[in-house]
Amino acid sequence: MLRAVRRHTDERWILLYVERWRKAPLQQQDGTLVPRDRGTPQGSSISPLLANLFLHYAFDEWMEKQFPQLRFERYCDDAVIHCRSERQAQFVRDAIARRLAQCGLELHPAKTRIVYCKDADRRATYANERFDFLGYTFRPRLSKSKAGKHFVSFSPAASDDAIKARGRKLRDWRLHLRSGKTLGDLAQMINSTVQGWINYYGRFYKSRLYPFLRRINEYLVRWAQRKYKRLRGRDRRALKWLARVAHRAPNLFAHWRWGARPDRWTLGAV
Fold first, then answer.
1. How far apart are CA 83 and CA 66, in angstroms?
2. Which pLDDT tens digit goes with each residue over 238-250?
């Protein structure tokens, strides 16, 4: 009983704290205060914390009480709920919509979907058979068991949007224009970031990441052609030169250590 009372008190104070932040006036650069009655300032560092606290009580704990038999994952304002049937999914979706309306929120009309997790055992056909969550696309994919047998599984791989975002970052580095740097300098510059990509997106369906990582080698080939006169305009010679470097120092770049080296094609299903 004491524990229940303490938890109820903690929740009340947290909600009061969130309410005070929600209504706190916004101070502009000239010092004037602008009154607010909802939301938090765009880009405010406190906004993600307040949103997470609010959804913990408005959604997480409500789900655990109303649907204790269902598993779900939530990150910020994105959530995935696992249901056993389409009918159950529709019922849960409508219940969540009513709950969010009570809290002054609403489901995103375009992003809220019921998805059929098609695989070797679930072979029906539905309009929605894929979804994106935390930079991964979940959809039916050809997989290979430990025994070497191929089958269809509903599994994740790096999403198109995630690959495009990493590609923009790669272009922003402008590696091919840094002819004043050494390969060691370039490796020190990008390795920690590339290793982070590998650690996160390379956990599932590794082959999805290999073509992107090989693009780093293409930039390094172009870097070599700008740096060394004997390699200018000679794509094959520059690639062979980079392959020899990778053979001598296979651990120089993070993506080389992972297998995306310029001296071979890297293939694999998972």
1. 14
2. 999 999 999 999 9
Q: How far is CA 189 from CA 170, 171, 181, 210, 219, in A?
A: 12, 14, 10, 20, 14
> Are 34 and 81 contacting, i.e. CB atoms less than 8 angstroms apart?
no
Ranges of the chain with pLDDT below 50: 1-6, 265-270
How far CA 228 is from CA of 12, 183, 190, 217, 221, in Å, comes to 67, 12, 21, 16, 11
Dihedrals φ, ψ of 102, to 5°?
-65, -25
Residue pair 76/52 in contact by the 8 Å Cβ criterion: yes
Residue type, 229: K
Give strand ranges (E) for the chain: 26-27, 33-34, 72-75, 78-81, 131-133, 136-144, 150-158
Both tokens assigned to 158: 């790096």
Q: How far is CA 156 from CA 53, 110, 130, 147, in A?
A: 28, 21, 10, 21
Q: pLDDT tens digits, residue range 221-234?
A: 999 999 999 999 99
Q: How far apart are CA 220 and CA 231, in angstroms?
A: 12
CA–CA gap between residue 143 and residue 153 (Å, rounded): 6
